[in-house]
Amino acid sequence: MRLVLFAIFSTKLLPFLYLYARAKNRSQTHVYLLFMGFISCAAHASEDLSSNNQQAARSTIKPLIESRCMVCHGCYDAPCQLKMESFEGLSRGANKALVYDGARLTEAPLTRLYEDASSQEAWQKKGFYSVLDAPQNDPMTSLMARMLTLKKAHPLPTEKILPDSFDFRLQRDQQCPAPDEFEQFAKKKPLWGMPYGLPALNEQEHSLLIEWIQNGSPYTQPSLTTEHLLPFIDLWEEFFNRDSLKNQLVSRYLFEHLYLANLYFEDEGTQTVYYKLVRSATPPGQPIQRIATRRPFDAPSVKRVYYRLWQSPDSLLAKTHMPYALNSQRMNFWTSLFFASDYEVSELPGYEPAVAANPFITFQQLPPESRYRFLLEEAEFTIMNYIKGSVCRGTVALNVIQDRFWVLFAEPGQFDSNESAHFLASQDKHLQMPASSQSGLLSITDWLSYADAQKSYLKAKSAFMKKHIQSMQNKGIDIIWDGDKSNTNAALTVFRHHNSASVVKGLVGTSPKTIWVIDYPILERIHYLLVAGFDVYGSVSHQAMTRMYMDFLRMESEMNYLSLLPEATRREKVEFWYRDAIDDIQPYLDLYIKAGVPGIVRNSETVNATQQLEKSLRVHLDNALTPYYSLKASSLSKEAITALSRLSDLTGTPATLLPESTLITVEGKGVLSLLADTAYSNISSMFDEKERRLPNEDKLTIATGFISAYPNVILSVPEKNIPDMVKSIELLKSEHDYEQFLDQYGVRRSDPNFWNISDKILEKYRAKEPLNSGILDYNRLDNR
CB of 713 within 8 A of CB of 744? Predict the structure, then answer.
């Protein structure tokens, strides 16, 4: 009866809301949000749950789940697909199927939260089962309650290194007991309660969660879109949905590059409200009717696509959070790029795979320089999409890059814009990528076609460079983008941490083994290969094909850098970078080595050409380089900085013994990142990586602040003890030495004080980077 009255009353109220909005000069969006706000309030009033329970859930339960559960259960690699970054993910439940499966021969069914189902019944048909529902009408029989209670009854052993009965391999067999399987699971794995392999919750935390579950797990996501944000939504949705063909094509381009971004209008630090740009079948002013496709460029199956701003309910994960501002400066910049110049869009491209997966065909009518400048303006974000996108666990995609390298960019507008556009248009077929073949089973024939196309493109590119070599040499170092003297996106550092990666602004660390110079065709292909075109649910052949194609882009980027150097230096570098490389890549390297293109940047002598070039680059980029990650930017004492700087000179055993990513929290100060630069003879194959290891060449990079979202170990040290800690690292010679080192400085996953220190690290992260911070991922914590 209450629902009937509610329906009648809400229907009667809508005209009044409309008249109110008209009187106040409000838009259709305002009317809809006011009405939906009323529905939400009325629906809550009809529930038996009290507002106090709802508020308690938001103020205590949500932060508790973030800091104790989300540290493992987030993104595509959440164990059992139990994504806990939002209540929607928690209520959806768990699934036994793997998302990251390197052995499947065909693409897997999609299970993306918010997209591929919208009800519990629909998720259950996809194999999900609840972790909150109580099978026996007893809340304590829910899976979540039983997992927490199991941990309380069987806490971690007291040993500092947990026994072998725990499996911390990233590729371990999943244990995803359904409700009717829990008893057997508890008998077989009594120590595997939640949080898995970490200390139990304290009494207060445990009681809060259990009480919340006993109360029926009350939670409703509050709307964070306050009235002062509504005009921004109206403004930007109007911008994205103008009717002209040019506007529609530009919006399609923007969407395909921004769909993973956390968009925001105002920087409110940790309280910033974020939105996702989504495709909808409905225009602004109407409820969003999301268009869900496997990839963002797939056919939408509607006559007109609308681009809408949808408020994301997710808590922020460091490994996926990519903030991107929508403000007046951004709108003015995009307008100058895409609408100030005189060009026509005569017709809209279709969504056939061979067209939609190739941006050089789809967006051929948009000026290439405008596209390139759009990507460059936020180059860190552009590269970050590859690192923080669907590749949450990216061994296949990431063993194609070195452990640390610098990234620079070719200066836009080097050549006549019409000539550049004509060249790209002539090469559009040669720039086709594996994404155009969908994500099922691909054949060797497919691969050979891409390989031949790449060879053809490189030959054409070499001829184009020879034609313009004189003008390029006249420009010299100016062919490298300097960020227009102020944009700190001009120089980036990429770190690989085995199966994850990070990208930050600036030239971090000592001179790396390799440096990339990325031009527009490379940058665009990286995005459509590894972001827009990468299907995390795809087959093993799709993933392998993606990885092998990325070999081309890495080599081309490295050779772009080497083209700045004299020919003799180039050959020496290539031979060092590709020691013992497989024969298959030699033809591609020869296309660069034997191209006969003289060095673009003239050097006074060949012997020190590399050092001279790096020095020139630093001067050239000086105004765009950020010292953010430099030890000198920390608040540490001169003595501590001097000691820490010695770590950058270490090679060999100490660097090999340390894990990929170490987070050092300095008591009373900030946080440092210590990263291993693992050395290989070459990275030209996805196989036999261990055989190509060169541990004697392993190095370390020390930086202030947070770099990796996936710490392998946490160290805690008072500032006065930093010199002693550094000395201990320098003396590491064996696993036993490292174990003793951790005894003194480490915060192991078994440490009873682990959560207290973890909370302090999160506080420091949010204080240092309020806009960019997020929950760290603990799935890769060592047990050493």
Answer: no
- Measured distance CA(494)–CA(387) in Å, rounded: 9
Distances 317 to 389, 392, 720, 776 between C-alpha atoms, Å: 12, 11, 32, 7
Say whether 504 sits in a helix, a strand or coil.
strand
- What are phi and psi for residue 273, nearest 5 degrees? -95, 130
Instruction: Write the pLDDT tens digit of every residue in 109-151.
Output: 999 999 999 999 999 999 999 999 988 789 899 999 999 999 9
Round to whole Å and give the CA distance between 99 and 530.
Answer: 17
Of the CA atoms within 13 Å of residue 299, those in its CB half-sphere come to: 11
Instruction: Measure the CA–CA gap between 627 and 629, rounded to whole angstroms.
Output: 6
What phi and psi, each to the nearest 5 degrees, are found at residue 542?
Answer: -60, -45
Sheet holding 501-505, edge to edge: 501-505, 492-496, 404-409, 514-518
Contact predicate 702/644, CB 8 Å: yes
Q: Band of the pLDDT at 671, cuts 50, 70, 90?
A: very high
Look at residue 480 and give its three-state secondary structure.
strand
Tokens standing for 534?
């990468």
Q: Which residues have CB under 8 Å from 349's CB, separation 6+?
A: 249, 355, 356, 361, 362, 363
d(CA 488, CA 506) in angstroms, rounded, equals 7
CA distances to 11, 353, 381, 770 from 323, rounded to whole Å, are 38, 30, 8, 11
Report yes or no: 477 and 490 within 8 Å, Cβ to Cβ.
no
Query: Contact 474/595 with Cβ under 8 angstroms?
Result: no
Selection from 266, 189, 258 nearest residue 226 by Cα:
266
CB atoms closer than 10 angstroms to residue 59 = 10
448-to-445, 451, 452, 454 alpha-carbon distances in Å: 5, 5, 6, 10
Residue type, 212: W
CA distance 502 to 321: 12
Using the structure block, give the residue that is written with the tokens 């890769």: 780
Handedness of CA 533, 535, 541, 545 (dihedral sign): positive
Side-chain-side CA neighbours of residue 518 (13 Å): 26
CA 259 from centre of chain: 12
**Cα gap 244→227, rounded to integer Å:** 30
Please state, as a whole number, how many other Cβ atoms lie within 10 Å of the Cβ of residue 770.
14
pLDDT above 70: residue 85: yes
Mean pLDDT of the chain: 89
Residue 505, amino acid: K
Residues 6+ apart with CB under 8 A from 449: none
Helix, coil or strand: residue 716:
strand
Asked if residue 595 lies in contact with residue 558, where contact means CB atoms within 8 angstroms, the answer is no
Measured distance CA(602)–CA(404) in Å, rounded: 27
Q: What contacts 350, CB < 8 A, 6 or more positions away? A: 356
Cα–Cα dist 628/610, whole Å: 25
Burial bucket for residue 42 (CB in 10 Å: 0-12, 13-18, 19+): middle
Give the pairing of strands 661-667 and 713-718. Answer: parallel
Enumerate residues 6+ apart whose C-beta is below 8 A from 758.
67, 71, 714, 776, 778
Tell me the H-state helices in 245-326.
Answer: 245-258
* Separation between Cα atoms, residue 469 and residue 597, nearest integer Å: 7
Convert the pLDDT of each residue in 181-212 to its tens digit.
Answer: 999 999 999 999 999 999 999 999 999 999 99
